[in-house]
Protein 1
Amino acid sequence: MNATVAPGITAAQIAEGQQLPALRHPVTATTIVLGALASRDWRPMHHDKDFAVERNGVKNIFINTPNNAAWFERYVTDWTGPRGRLGRLRFEMKKSVFPGDEMCFSGVVRKLSTDATGCHWVDLDLAISVDGEMRTTGFACVAVPADPSDNPWARKGDRWTP
Amino acid sequence: MSAAPELPPAVQAMIGTPMYEERTEFPIEIGYVYNTCAAVQNANPIFWDEAAAREITGGPIAPPTMLSVWFRPHHWAPGAAGERTALQVHFDLKRLLDLPEAVVASNEAVFGEPVRPGDRLTTRQIVRSVGPLKRTKLGTGRFWTIDVETTNQHGEWVGTEIYTLLGYRRPDQ
């Protein structure tokens, strides 16, 4: 074990039904444009309000798909700590997130399992809501350490089967 | 893998066929990692602290969810005509099916070997299915599913993205 990085959560500390701490983040046009450009998504509905309104028929620019993924990744690894390793992420953007919205992230542990290679997996149901209205629902499968000496990032090839 | 029977032959031929194998236009770059982490205020030390990255991930890596970032083309490049688009098979389907608008309906990714600064990645786009014409809230259109498989310069699998998209025509179009 090392001294430089906090160990984060281990499988023994997680139970099915456990809720992740909520995360709230107010969204501005800058939030959306930063996310779009960081993900090299130059499509105009993520930076040009006139285009979003006239072509997409929505009220404003909105968060793009890869940035939504980056937000979920941050939310999950805020909870697991740096040794948490994302294996799978799926989500549906049912309604867009616009400037002026406050995103509220929530998550719950659906299942804990250990695969044939000994990797500990946590299945998470995820959501982003705004004022209680569901905007994005998601599902993540994240590997967590069995104990403080374990590190899912050390797995390669046949020992990593997300 | 499936196809509605009335699909044009050019669309039927795309289903299940790996297309547009391409390499990233630039080596994986730490600057985009910082931009992405800053955009979502992700403080994970493996992306900010070299010692933490060395200890946990064997050196710096990119956030796994950045998988699609690396093969989006530059918005402009010398000699390129018109706007350049990522996920070209999606735009091919829009054109071939005459559906001018589109939205992402769902998005799934599976992550393999970490992507590291300096890596050169290769992607292949595979249309898995194209559904029947449907009336939706946005207009009449079709759902389709596209896999994007990505490997690194060592031939290691680094991930697969599975996109379900709705191509549609607005009622007034």
Protein 2
Amino acid sequence: MAGQDGMTGHSLAKALRWGVLALACLSPLKAGATEAAGFTSLFAPSATGEPFTLEAARAASGALLLRWTVEPGNYLYRDSLEATRDGAPVPLERPAGEVKDDPTFGVVQIFPRDVEASAGGLEGTGTLRVAYQGCSETGICFPPQARLVDLASLAIEQAPAGLMSSPADGSGRNSVASTGAAAMPASLDESDGIASLFQGSLGWTMLAFLGFGLLLALTPCVFPMIPILAGMLTRSGQALTARRSLVLTGAYVLAMAGAYGLVGAVAGWSGASLQAALQTPLALGVSAAIFTLLALSMFGLFDLALPAGLSARLTGRGTGGSLGGAALVGFGSALIVGPCVTPPLAGAMLYAAATGDAATGAAALFMLGLGMGLPLMLVGAFGPALLPRGGVWLERTKQLFGVVFLAVAILLAGRLLPPPATLALLGVLLVGSAAFFGGFDRLTAASGAAARLARGGGMAAALYGATLIIGAAGGAQDPLRPLVFASAPAASQGEDTAVTVASSDGFDRAVAEAAAGPANGRPILVDVTAAWCSVCRSNEQVLAGPELRARLSHLPQVTADVTHTNAETRALMERFRIVGPPALFLVDAQGREIPGSRIIGPVTVEEITRRLDAAGA
Amino acid sequence: MQRRHFLTLAGAVAAGALAGSRLLAQGVDVDAILRDPAAPTAGNPKGDVTVVAFLDYNCPFCKKAAPDLERTVKEDGKIRLVYKDWPILTEASVYGAQMALAAKYQGGYSRVHHALMAIPGRGVSKEQMAAAVRASGIDLARLEADLTAHAGDISTLLKRNLAQAESIGLQGTPTYLIGPFRTSTLDYAGSKQAFAEARRRQAAE
């Protein structure tokens, strides 16, 4: 069902495209008319005559002689000369041919000049079917020819030949099944584990994705959602009832799931890469802006900055938080966990894009989002009991979450900004919040433990923030190692075999270079990564680990850096049908992906070893 | 549901447009050859020059030229490539063409096409082709289903290709139609030259 649907859509869409073109500018009509004069032959000699002609004769012994005239520049394949009588093969005496050894085609025996073959035991009447096939030296292969030789008169006529007449008719005859399908392993299940989820019934597919979502909720990459959600609930302040909290959390989770569903639908409709859509500067910029606005409202700046109506809507004062605001945050949250959910997303996306079945793809991803959000409902249920209800603590907590929101906004913007700029922004945020939380306040002898703790924490934050700013000035990229540039060679040491590219052309160049290098002919390891992809960092550590280091040092590597979303990186990802980082696969010397070598998501030493073994790398 | 409705509607509009062009254009066959909606395409769908490749999966010269053609199409960026599966050499060729065209229903034509083209030689058996398709990473269950469900469509397309090739008097594989030109020898340099010439002619018209 889905398949038929998809195909209908596909061909119709294609027809539509051409139809619109025809309507819009009539250019196809013009092209059709001008080219209708006929195709002129540009390079090939316009051979009009038959390259091979067959004659039959009787030898004195009574044997049948078959003689082929081969026009100069053509040749017959020796093994193609065949004869059958009533469907039974008739042995032909063929002379030895000229040996043609072509690196591409292998060793074959050919007849570049006229040739004669004979067959005995063909007295009397009947019809002999003679088949032959050959090529031109100019590089064209002619269809096999068949002639009927009347054994009595030796008259020759054209045989009703054609491969197409029979096999293409029999609908099921040439199925993959009839050709060793029993031995056909479901290779899909091995290489694209997630895709196999779609082979079951729709209900199971949905359940499976819900389960996947639940599993994903246990991975660290969903944790950022917890403070975001808690912050959102805190913002509602005293008015927050347990029930209201649950409703708000529900809106948040539904919006998050909806964001994924939308992505699935878009994929099904357009076949476009999902994360390319989510990671567009516009989407990221809008999300970053949303989180910045939320943060400002946490600091209480909103009432001044925005019209009262909008402010009330966003902060939801009086109603205990607005549903719209919660949904907005949920939608934005879907962006934050982007890289973490790549593996299941890739599976769902490939399915949705390949079948054009937008509904299933969207529903599956919606279920995934729902699964990821279900544990968050716990926060919604118990949050109000745990979160502060009023006074100074409520204000402090709100401010703290304001800082968290700002950090989220910076991380989102960081996917567009150069890494040092992100570092600098984080540094400024830390120093700023340090001041906000009393890191620079003067302590007196009378200061209590809380004030001293705040001062200590604030100072630490300020120190880290300052370090980040210094790191940014030095061009550092990793917030956990801001001063790495101080120990200069460390950064480049581990990556000397890898070339970093960010475009399809660059990839081709890198592959060509690698193929021409000492590792000529070996597969090339391609690592698709991005600065904002945390799983990629741990993958890099696996690759650099002692188990793999020696093996990989002989292997050319190309790092596809898709940190920045632009037309070039998108084209690179679409070329290999990658949904987003992290992805790891092997290509051959021509830059073609080696089937079955792809790993999406976190990698293990065993998994990489297995793929390397399989590819002979 | 809505989507299907929309596409049906769009399809009707498109069909009308195509019918119109068929009446207007003089070269009925040529238009059909260049713009057969069922034929798999690659390269830039909006390219300013079209190459139509009549190929057979047991055609050694097709395989030899394939990387050069792909390279030219990719580097140029403005070439539209139309694949005409024209299985004329062996019975296995028909089988290969059927699998490749069935893969199109899951968006995998080029994957299977390249897998089959990558098997060297002229005597590739069905079994070898099936193995290559298995290794290509295509959804086999789906392929099998599409092969059965769309057997009629695939057969019709193959026959149409056959008729089209005959109508313009093609002699064998490979044959490439590049703009107004036809050639069977195609290497990297030659194809660049051919595309440049085709563009020059188109501009002159």
